[in-house]
């Protein structure tokens, strides 16, 4: 089977890889590029654990072919902290214990960051609707919503 | 499997025609990739149409809107003019799936996937949207209502690609709405749905109406009698009741775990009534 050469930018870095035609972006990130922060929960776009930003849009990387990443800008959880300095959302998730097993956390953090970019002061309901595609089987979501709101408040204060 | 991302619609058509095995057109991929993973489809060729110039754009044309086949549904909600004129279509498209799905899924994909429960399709049909199709014989325009042929089936021929949808210009006093029933508040598939589009005269009288029903037959239904009942009225309560009954009369739903025949039929009429009220309000009329 012929491999496809893909040149893309991930978290600002020019990246190249070879992939199979049917390979998903999630598999390429995890298995070829060692970016294992994005998780596979369902593989069918229901759970959001594989959420990444593709050309400015929040997507499930399990529903993107790796070959589609040619020329794209991709942002993953690995690019969220700046060096040792965690993103306010990451700190708020720790402070509010908004995770237990942690499998859904990278996807939720990426999704929440995209929400706050578009809406710096969301209502709880808006947070819940925006994150409806990110399933968490541990927390019951309440702590997640509180953590997102705490981070949003901190980010609004600058 | 091969993956191609042609730069022109003609190249895409040629690639689809030349392939003897199963093929799939890839836009947002939110249905195709799920079907591939489950083994429901095993294409020999995937043609990604997102590299074809212009397909990722919403452009104004003759006072209306041309929406490229690669425009994600999230982009529809971000277009203020489109949302103001075709609120029902945009709402329907934006109901599909999660934020992540909205970032990828397209209305053309929703149409060509052929689900009887596709949310955007009844709204497009009520809007009298027209699909532009590129194919082996050139380009043709086809009403959206004529594309679904049954669950998972369309009337598109081999090598044909829907490259855009056209939503017509809106007169001043017009409005549309789409409602669906799901047992939850989000992230579900319509058990029954209804879309209504109306145009009013200066006295608030309906001069043109179109009603479409989803998930109550193998394909979207155009409720012609229901629309005729609305026409010439101001959408008074008794008119809406008769319109709802006319909707229920044409439903041919299935019984499944999501809803019974009786439930779907009853709900479809009620949704049509409520959607008509919203469409009338948006058009500036009573109700």
Automatic annotation (TrEMBL), chain A:
Gene3D superfamilies named among the record's database cross-references: 3.10.20.30, [2Fe-2S]-binding domain (1.10.150.120)
CDD domains in the record: fer2
Keyword line: 2Fe-2S, Iron, Iron-sulfur, Metal-binding, Oxidoreductase
Coiled coil: none
Matching SUPFAM superfamilies: 2Fe-2S ferredoxin-like, CO dehydrogenase ISP C-domain like
GO molecular function: 2 iron, 2 sulfur cluster binding; metal ion binding; oxidoreductase activity
Superkingdom of this protein's organism: Bacteria
Stretches assigned to the 2Fe-2S ferredoxin-type domain: 4-80
PANTHER family found in the cross-reference section: OXIDOREDUCTASE WITH IRON-SULFUR SUBUNIT (PTHR44379), XANTHINE DEHYDROGENASE IRON-SULFUR-BINDING SUBUNIT XDHC-RELATED (PTHR44379:SF8)
Protein name: Carbon-monoxide dehydrogenase small subunit
Organism for this UniProt entry: Albidovulum inexpectatum
Source organism phylogeny: Bacteria, Pseudomonadati, Pseudomonadota, Alphaproteobacteria, Rhodobacterales
Automatic annotation (TrEMBL), chain B:
Keywords: FAD, Flavoprotein
Gene3D superfamilies: 3.30.465.10, CO dehydrogenase flavoprotein, C-terminal domain (3.30.390.50), Uridine Diphospho-n-acetylenolpyruvylglucosamine Reductase, domain 2 (3.30.43.10)
SUPFAM superfamilies per UniProt: CO dehydrogenase flavoprotein C-terminal domain-like, FAD-binding/transporter-associated domain-like
GO molecular function: FAD binding; oxidoreductase activity
InterPro entries listed in its UniProt record: CO_DH_flav_C, CO_DH_flav_C_dom_sf, Diverse_Substr_Oxidored, FAD-bd_PCMH, FAD-bd_PCMH-like_sf, FAD-bd_PCMH_sub1, FAD-bd_PCMH_sub2, Mopterin_DH_FAD-bd
Domain of life assignment: Bacteria
FAD-binding PCMH-type domain segment(s): 1-172
Keyword NADP attached: no
Keyword Membrane appears in the UniProt entry: no
Biological source species: Albidovulum inexpectatum
Protein name: Carbon-monoxide dehydrogenase medium subunit
């Amino acid at each position: 089977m012929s491999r496809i050469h893909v040149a893309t930018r991930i978290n600002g870095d020019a990246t190249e890889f070879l992939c199979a035609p049917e390979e998903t972006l999630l598999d390429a990130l995890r298995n070829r590029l060692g970016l294992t922060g994005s998780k596979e929960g369902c593989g069918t776009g229901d759970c959001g654990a594989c959420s990444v930003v593709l050309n400015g849009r929040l997507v499930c990387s399990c529903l993107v072919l790796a070959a589609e990443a040619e020329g794209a800008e991709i942002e993953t959880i690995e690019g969220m902290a700046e060096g040792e300095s965690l993103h306010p959302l990451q700190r708020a998730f720790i402070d509010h214990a908004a995770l237990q097993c942690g499998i859904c956390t990278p996807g939720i953090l990426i999704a929440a960051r995209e929400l706050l970019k578009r809406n710096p002061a969301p209502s709880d309901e808006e947070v819940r609707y925006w994150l409806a595609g990110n399933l968490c089987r541990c927390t019951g979501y309440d702590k997640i919503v509180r953590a997102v709101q705490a981070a949003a408040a901190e980010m609004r204060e600058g | 499997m091969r993956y191609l991302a042609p730069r022109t619609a003609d190249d895409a058509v040629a690639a689809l025609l030349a392939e003897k095995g199963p093929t799939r057109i890839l836009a947002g991929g939110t249905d195709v990739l799920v079907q591939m993973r489950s083994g429901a489809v095993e294409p020999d060729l995937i043609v990604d149409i997102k590299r074809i110039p212009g397909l990722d754009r919403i452009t104004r044309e003759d006072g209306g809107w041309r929406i490229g086949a690669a425009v994600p549904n999230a982009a529809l909600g971000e277009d203020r003019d489109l949302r103001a004129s075709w609120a029902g279509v945009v709402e329907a498209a934006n109901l599909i799936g999660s934020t992540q799905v909205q970032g990828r899924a397209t209305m053309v994909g929703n149409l060509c996937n052929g689900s009887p429960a596709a949310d955007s399709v009844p709204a497009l049909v009520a809007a009298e949207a027209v699909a532009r199709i590129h194919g082996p014989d050139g380009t043709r325009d086809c009403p959206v209502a004529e594309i679904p042929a049954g669950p998972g089936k369309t009337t598109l021929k081999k090598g044909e690609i829907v490259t855009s949808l056209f939503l017509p210009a809106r007169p001043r006093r017009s409005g549309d709405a789409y409602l669906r029933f799901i047992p939850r508040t989000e992230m579900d598939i319509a058990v029954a749905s209804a879309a209504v589009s109306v145009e009013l005269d200066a006295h608030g009288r309906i001069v043109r109406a179109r009603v479409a029903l989803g998930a109550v037959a193998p394909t979207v239904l155009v409720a012609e009698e229901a629309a005729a009942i609305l026409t010439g009225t101001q959408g008074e309560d008794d008119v809406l009741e008769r319109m709802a009954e006319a909707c229920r009369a044409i439903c041919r739903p299935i019984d499944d775990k999501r809803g019974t025949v009786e439930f779907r039929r009853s709900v479809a009429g009620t949704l049509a009534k409520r959607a008509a009220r919203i469409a009338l309000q948006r058009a500036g009329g009573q109700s």
